[in-house]
Amino acid sequence: QVPLVESGGGLVQAGASLRLSCAASGRTFSTYYMGWFRQAPGKERDFVAAISWSGITYYADSVKGRFTISRDNAKNTMYLQMNSLKPEDTAVYYCAAGRRPIAVATMSDPSKYEYWGQGTQVTVSS
Question: How far apart are CA 1 and CA 36, in angstroms?
Fold first, then answer.
């Protein structure tokens, strides 16, 4: 088990920034690939960004150039820096972790992740 706890969500105006954090427990954090997904009301859970255990990053087209994913293995924490937020970014954001041998491009597939956090709400007003 890898308990994951998200934090950093909130209510902001369009154009503002937020940084989400995902804290993990356990000694093997550095061996997991990690991802952020989001789910708006009435919609499916969508991929946002992912980072491999070696630091390779992968983004959804909708957030490229605005969001940055990173990880600090010494702190067992993953981050999502979100800039230039838009109302359409409003959703519950979930972090996820997995350790199966997968290709980088498949990190966008939620079925590849074994562990999920409870989510943090991000609301962007216009």
Answer: 18
Alpha-carbon distances of 40 from 46, 105, 120, rounded to whole Å:
9, 23, 12
With the C-alpha atoms ordered 117, 20, 23, 78, is the resulting torsion angle positive or negative?
positive
Work out the pLDDT band at 86, boundaries 50, 70, 90: very high
49-67 pLDDT per residue, tens:
999 999 999 999 999 999 9
Q: How many residues in total does the chain contain?
A: 126
Is the distance from CB of 45 to CB of 111 less than 8 angstroms? no
